């Protein structure tokens, strides 16, 4: 028999150590599919590490990849804190990107100091609005937000395709379904010469700190945490539960929307319907690895970005499919979920004899 | 108006509706079994993918069509077991575990497919299930062509509606499954194992879900494509609420959904030049959200759903 005994106090070392251990286990487990593909395991790991950290270029790629993941990770973390299951980060990201393109490709001409904030706000607004609908359906009609947010992801991507093949199609795009390029004044500045890392990273880091302070130090943040701990108790304590869900929904959607802005205005410069390889869904893994802590999200995003960038580079070198990265990401979600047990409980092996003594 | 009626009255239309409904019937039956036992299984989208890939690959490797169906079901059961272990004895978040299983099953399927077939320009095809022709019955007016243009997996899905309904409502096992999702301590008091009952039901439900995926690669199409499941699993989760966790209503819900979808495809050929195609493609998702919203207020979720049960804890 195995028995779970709840721990009274959880040391912060254990709280941080568990997800780190989970990530390492997931990374080690990747050796199985690598070996199954008949590739040299050690060399594959080495190539992955080199691809993620081996040069300034590699590191710039890692930071560029981590940028949207920090934002979608924050979006999931803040929503999950209130136990609002926003699985619609992918759709909200695209809504944000669409709004950024609508504002930033020539509809308004202004100097960068004005246009960039406008583009950013438009994207955040669109993402927030995208999450407002499922939140209202939840609090007003009791429709499960997991299902509505998941289904809306497909709707939004189709809407983006429709816009890109219709009214927002670039007439100079040689027939490809893509938007017109963003104006130079609307682009987030690069951080390094000839590298892809851009100031969207600064935006993401600022948001991580801001969300951290918001949750820890403000009344609304306290209410979000209280609702997540126990909605019934929160209601009895006079916390406006409905309003809190709406606020957290708007914030979460806005953060995911910013991820879309950052990809379009920081990296790509125009919008296509394959802008995101699932950043919205990966954000959930990032948030869980971070233990839903906004500052932890930054580190979790760096780890996941490293897996993706490293696997891409390894895949090019020795031909192991880069779906390996998705596999590691999925495994780390399951590992971190299990690792939570070791944080919350003391796990005891109970022999029949000891059991008798207990009774 | 008369055009619309004319569409609705053709046997071909209902044949298409039933074809579209088939994977959803499997999926909703699987989901309602899990949820009746108290476990939300958001692994469904990934289990669909795994069933589609595993079934197809087994056939492609020479297992035969029914061998493929079996392999798909086993793959679904295996991922269901992962979800069951995480959520039942370990009592972890059913939401997060389900998403985890979906990501895991999807990425493992894609990785396996890519590793087995590193560079193929077009996906290899298999000899898929063919429509069965039943002498005399197939010649019935209207019903014949609508029903008997279907492949064996559609009949299997219809058979499972009866089987699941029978088991749930007419056997002691079914009574226990319904009870364990409503009031697990009553099951414990009966001397039955809540853990085993829930885990077994989740595994069986997941195997059913995987058959929905297998239908895609072995009946609807004859090859595996990335992203081919395309939200069908999530649609099933919405339809399960719509069906108020009843097999009969699940069939009706899936058929209604199939009919709407078949109808909009036909509408698209009529007015496709005016309205962009994506509007039609959005319809299934919007329809599922609508189906969920309509019943959400009075939805009678199994009372112990999402709630882990630990022995001796009240």
Automatic annotation (TrEMBL), chain A:
Q: How does it sit in the membrane?
A: Multi-pass membrane protein
| Source organism superkingdom | Bacteria
* Annotated GO CC locations: plasma membrane
Is Membrane a UniProt keyword of this protein?
Answer: yes
UniProt KW keywords: Cell membrane, Membrane, Transmembrane, Transmembrane helix
Record InterPro entries: ABC_transp_permease
In terms of CDD domains, this protein maps to: TM_PBP1_transp_TpRbsC_like (cd06580)
Keyword Zinc (UniProt): no
A GO molecular function held by the record: transmembrane transporter activity
What subcellular locations does the record give? Answer: Cell membrane
- Residues crossing the lipid bilayer are 62-80, 92-108, 114-134, 146-164, 197-215, 236-259, 279-311, 323-343
Protein name as it appears in the record: ABC transporter permease
UniProtKB/TrEMBL annotation, chain B:
For this record, the Gene Ontology CC terms, alphabetical, are: plasma membrane
Gene Ontology molecular function: transmembrane transporter activity
Q: Can the keyword Zinc-finger be found in this entry's annotation? A: no
Name where it mostly resides: membrane
Keyword Signal on entry: no
Q: Which keywords describe this protein according to UniProt?
A: Cell membrane, Membrane, Transmembrane, Transmembrane helix
State the membrane topology.
Answer: Multi-pass membrane protein
Q: Where in the cell is it found?
A: Cell membrane
**What's the superkingdom here?**
Bacteria
Which residue ranges run through the membrane? 12-32, 39-59, 65-88, 95-113, 147-169, 196-217, 223-243, 250-267, 279-296
Q: What is this protein called?
A: ABC transporter permease
Taxonomic lineage of the native organism: Bacteria, Pseudomonadati, Pseudomonadota, Alphaproteobacteria, Hyphomicrobiales
């Amino acid at each position: 028999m195995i028995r779970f005994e709840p721990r009274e106090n959880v040391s912060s070392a254990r709280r941080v150590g568990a997800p780190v251990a989970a990530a390492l286990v997931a990374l080690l487990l990747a050796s199985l599919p690598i070996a199954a593909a008949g590739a040299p395991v050690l060399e594959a790991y080495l190539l992955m590490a080199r691809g993620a950290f081996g040069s300034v270029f590699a590191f710039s790629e890692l930071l560029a990849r981590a940028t949207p993941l920090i934002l979608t990770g924050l979006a999931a973390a803040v929503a999950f804190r209130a136990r609002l299951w926003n699985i619609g980060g992918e759709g909200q990201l695209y809504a944000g990107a669409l709004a950024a393109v609508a504002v930033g490709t020539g509809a308004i001409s202004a100097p960068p100091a004005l246009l960039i904030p406008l583009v950013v706000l438009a994207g955040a607004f669109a993402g927030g609005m995208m999450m407002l609908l499922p939140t209202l359906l939840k609090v007003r009609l009791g429709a499960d937000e997991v299902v509505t947010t998941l289904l809306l992801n497909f709707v939004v991507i189709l809407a983006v395709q429709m816009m890109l093949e219709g009214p927002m199609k670039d007439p100079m795009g040689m027939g490809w379904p893509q938007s017109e390029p963003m104006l130079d004044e609307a682009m987030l500045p690069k951080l390094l010469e000839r590298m892809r890392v851009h100031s969207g990273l600064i935006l993401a880091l600022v948001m991580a700190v801001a969300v951290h302070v918001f949750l820890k130090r403000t009344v609304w943040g306290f209410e979000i945490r209280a609702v997540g701990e126990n909605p019934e108790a929160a209601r009895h304590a006079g916390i406006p539960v409905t309003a809190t869900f709406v606020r957290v929904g708007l914030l979460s959607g806005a953060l995911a929307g910013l991820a879309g802005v950052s990809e379009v205005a920081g990296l790509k410069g125009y919008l296509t319907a394959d802008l995101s390889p699932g950043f919205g869904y990966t954000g959930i893994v990032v948030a869980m690895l971070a233990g839903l802590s906004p500052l932890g999200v930054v580190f979790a995003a760096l780890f996941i970005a490293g897996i993706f960038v490293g696997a891409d580079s390894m895949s090019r070198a020795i031909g192991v499919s880069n779906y390996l990265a998705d596999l590691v990401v999925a495994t780390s979600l399951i590992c971190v979920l299990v690792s939570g047990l070791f944080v919350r409980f003391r796990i005891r092996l109970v022999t029949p004899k000891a059991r008798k003594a207990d009774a | 108006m008369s055009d619309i009626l004319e569409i609705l009255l053709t046997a071909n239309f209902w044949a298409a509706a039933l074809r579209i409904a088939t994977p959803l019937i499997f999926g909703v039956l699987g989901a309602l079994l899990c949820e009746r036992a108290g476990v939300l299984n958001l692994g469904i989208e990934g289990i669909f993918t795994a069933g589609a890939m595993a079934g197809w690959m087994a056939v492609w490797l020479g297992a035969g069509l029914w061998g493929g169906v079996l392999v798909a079901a086993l793959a679904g059961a295996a991922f269901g077991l992962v979800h069951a272990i995480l959520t039942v004895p370990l009592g972890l978040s059913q939401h997060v575990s389900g998403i985890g299983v979906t990501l895991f099953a999807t990425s493992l399927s894609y990785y396996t497919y890519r590793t087995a077939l590193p560079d193929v320009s077009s996906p290899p095809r298999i000899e898929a299930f063919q429509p069965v022709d039943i002498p005399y019955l197939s010649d019935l007016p209207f019903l014949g062509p609508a029903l008997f243009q279907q492949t064996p997996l559609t009949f299997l899905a219809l058979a499972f509606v009866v089987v699941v309904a029978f088991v749930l409502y007419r056997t002691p096992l079914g009574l226990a499954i319904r009870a364990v999702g409503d009031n697990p301590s009553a099951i414990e008091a009966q001397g039955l194992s809540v853990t085993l009952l829930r885990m077994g039901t989740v595994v069986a439900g997941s195997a059913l879900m995987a058959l929905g995926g297998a239908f895609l690669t072995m009946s609807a199409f004859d090859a595996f494509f990335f992203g081919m499941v395309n939200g069908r699993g999530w649609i099933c989760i919405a339809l399960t609420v719509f069906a108020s966790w009843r097999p009969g209503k699940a069939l009706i819900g899936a058929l209604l959904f199939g009919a709407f979808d078949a109808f909009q495809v036909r509408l698209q050929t009529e007015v496709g030049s005016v309205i962009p195609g994506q509007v039609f493609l959005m319809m299934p998702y919007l329809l599922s959200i609508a189906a969920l919203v309509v019943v959400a207020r009075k939805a009678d979720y199994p009372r112990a759903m999402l709630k882990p049960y630990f022995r001796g804890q009240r």
